[in-house]
Amino acid sequence: MTSYGRFFSHILFALVLFGQMLSISSGYCKTAEEKGLQIAREADWRDDGFGNYTAEMTMTLKNKQGKESKRSIRTKTLEVPGDGDKSLSIFDTPKDVRGTAFLTFSHKVGDDEQWLYLPALKRVKRINSKNKSGSFMGSEFAYEDIASQEVEKYTYKYTGKDEYHGQLCFVVESYPVDKKYSGYTKRVSWLDTKEYRLQKIEFYDRKKSLLKTLTVGDYQLYLEKFWRPDTMSMVNHQTGKSTVLNWTDYTFQTGLTDKDFNSTSLKRVR
Amino acid sequence: MQQIETWIGKTVVRYRWPLIVLFITIAVLSASGMRYLVFSNDSRMFFSKENPQLQALEALERTYTKVENVLYILAPKSENIFERDTLAAIEFLSNEAWKLPFSSRVDSISNFQHTRAFEDDLMVTDLISNAQSLTKEQIAEIQAIALNQPMLLNSLINIKGSVTAININIIKPDDGSYDLEKINTAALELNKQMKGKYPALDIYLTGGVMIDAAFGAAPAKDMKMLIPVMFSLLLFLIVISLRSFLATAGTLLVIIFSTITALGIAGWMGILLTPASANAPIIILTLAVADSIHILVTIRHQMRKGAAKQAAIQESIRVNLQPILITSISTAIGFLTMNFSDAPPFRDLGNIVAMGVMAALVYSVFFMPAFMAVLPLKIPQTKNEEHQIFSAIAELVIKRRNIIFWTMLVTILATSSGISRIYLNDEFIKYFDRSYPFRIASDFSAKHLAGLEIIDWDLNSGEEGGINNPEYLAKVDSFAQWFREQPEVRHVYTITDIMKRLNQNIHGDDPAWYTLPKQRDLAAQYLLLYEMNLPFGLDLNDRINVDKSSTRITISTPNIGTAGVLDLEQRGRKWLLLNAPEMVTYGSGLSIIFSHISERNIRSMLKGSIIALVLISLIMILALRDMKLGILSLVPNLTPAFMAFGVWGIFVGQVGLAVSVMIAMTLGIVVDDTVHFLSKYQRARREHGMNAEDSIRYAFKTVGTAIWVTTLALVGGFGVLSFSGFQINSHMGAMTTVTIIFAIILDFFFLPTLLLKLESNK
User: Fold this and answer.
1) pTM of the prediction?
2) Relative to the CA of A110, which of B133, B251, B267, B566 has its CA 20 to 30 Å away?
3) Which residues of A touch B104 (CB under 8 A)?
4) ipTM
């Protein structure tokens, strides 16, 4: 055997070994918890590096009678390396709250920080972020549902694969780390196996029954890397109420910096 | 007709065996439908779909959220809730309550979202957390806050600080997965756990869920307790009056068959058992006795006179068929007119009993005589002794006809005059007596806290976001303040209290700022800030509708009864008309619907009663083929109900839902005695050519015993019903008992003297 051939057989051997390791690592060695965490990390990692973006959102609230009410909100988001995102939401309607701005610093560990600027009062008020599980503007979304989904805020458990709307999805259960102040005991998420995009979440309340279902749809690709949905729809199964978020005008790399996300910037927004 | 009766008599005797087999088969087959019987446990079962007040409530519930509730009331034996252990118990229970099935919201003094100024910020936190580590000073501070908070005072805490409540909202999902039993069991379990963990507390449990559960449990409880008593009573009566084991067995079979046939068919038809309709068995048992007794008494009468058994049976069917047919049909008509009722449970009750009565007719005519024909029924020939008492009554009535007639007339008028003292009222909570734990809890709640009678007002501003309009808020606030000035109102829940409090907090907790915000955008932004601060489940979505165009305010009063609720609602509406005409609306809620139901029901039943009266009188005229006697029969048929209402007016006064179906129901029952008496009287006049006096003697002699025994059975049956723990049943039982007693008195003393007055000189 020539040295050339020996080299080749080594490579082959190494490849076989590596393949075995891979299959072991993905199939046997990892617990469901580790696999769940891995999926959550992968999804997070794939969205890494978006920098910043702005978008417009219309929130449509619907009660059981079918009566609707709309709110429109502009959002600005800044990626913070090593920590949770910073975001700013500016309310345009209803008219009575026009110019109200909501600033959030989310953190990987510990409570998020939140402030609300009230133009009628011309003052910024801090919000008790322990109460993150309450309704956001009377909608079926809680703050914790729309806040930046930091991986560290939950523990995970992979439960298998499931087909959802023609896409093969990972099904991952997640449990809030902050058990006392979360409104949920469990979330079950569907992420497509191809792009790791969130497709659906089922929320289970403190009495462990199904409370709400969020479905996310119409993903668009921005900057050839970042997927953003056009619609998010939350249905409360217990009250029959629902809320739909419609997103438009996603713009990435808009030059936002830290300076656009502090209490003085809050007062400047119009 | 005569030929048919004779033919049936002969047929029954000839084909006795096939008939016995046939009817046992029919009974078993129809009874098999009993497995489909289901108990309804929804306090709304009393309302029909067309009920306008129910429709209004359902509209309100679609705008906000339809909730039931579970209410725990904690009363420490020390009479002070502001102690570390009690506060810890409240905190523990508030946390555990979130885990109750179908719960959507928990409100207690511990998770009350207390707002205050902190530096330049608004702090929104639980009023009590980590109770075990609170210092004396902190507890005193909490006490001062709780006792001065209009949202809490008289609702979740009493002014003395000795009683506190924890309210849990329960959502009924639309998908039919709601399981009352599950939530009831879980709530009771938590109650038990609390009692074990905190022996220093008295704990009471009530709320809509418990009331619904009681509605579901009441029929079973009644059936378990009352039916055995009823049955023994009937057995005793039959044995005493028939003095024959076999005759008793025959009668028992008839009443059992009739009852299970009616219940079985009800099961096949999918009729729900409610506390009202579940009384059908007791009523059927009672009514079914009469037919058999009439037939058996005649058989015995004939055999004593020396007739052979088969001949006695034939003769009994011949003479009894017509009166039994008439009484059964008239009783059935009386019960069927309950279909005019606005409350479905009464319709069901009427239909089940009507089926039972008709079944009793069939079994009494075709089965029971056939059964007697195959049994070795022996009755010794004796001289008639048993009629002595009735002969004596006959003689007394004939001799002293004038004085008896006038005495009776005066009594009737005097008694009936009590009707003027009757007033309409229902106390929903008092439908259940104090053998139900939730009733005791509700009484306790009514004594110390807000009580369970609730009126909701959905106040519409007419525009999106209009609830932030200072003018609107000012009107809502003065409406709420006006209610607070009403003596019967214990608590008013309004968002204007929150608005004022927020305004004060924003201004450094300065009490001078406890006022409504003066600008619309400010109000909206306060509310936004506040809502952003609220934790899971404690949002304002059940107070404010989605487009913020209307809010609801909730008035709580202790048990003031339906008349009180209606009055308060009317006054409230008048206030709106005068002060805020643009948002005039009706008060809504379960109390309001219950307040209207008696009136609606009485109105609808009045129509039913008149139809029953006309039909029954027509039947009497046709059957007796005598216009005069037919019209005359109206007197003893209708008068007992008036007299019973009069007695009720004198001794009780309050009539409600139960009594609304009374006239139609008793009419069908009391008519029986009149039919039997008049048909015998007429037979004597026509067949035997007797004069009025002798015909009365004949009627007393032939049907006196049967009327007496069936009346005893009826009094026993409805008397037992009056011991029901469910007020609708006990009132219905008591009132019917009184009516039946008056009916027999009139039939024995007034009807004969009336006949003598009219027919004696012919």
Assistant:
1) 0.82
2) B133
3) 238-239
4) 0.84
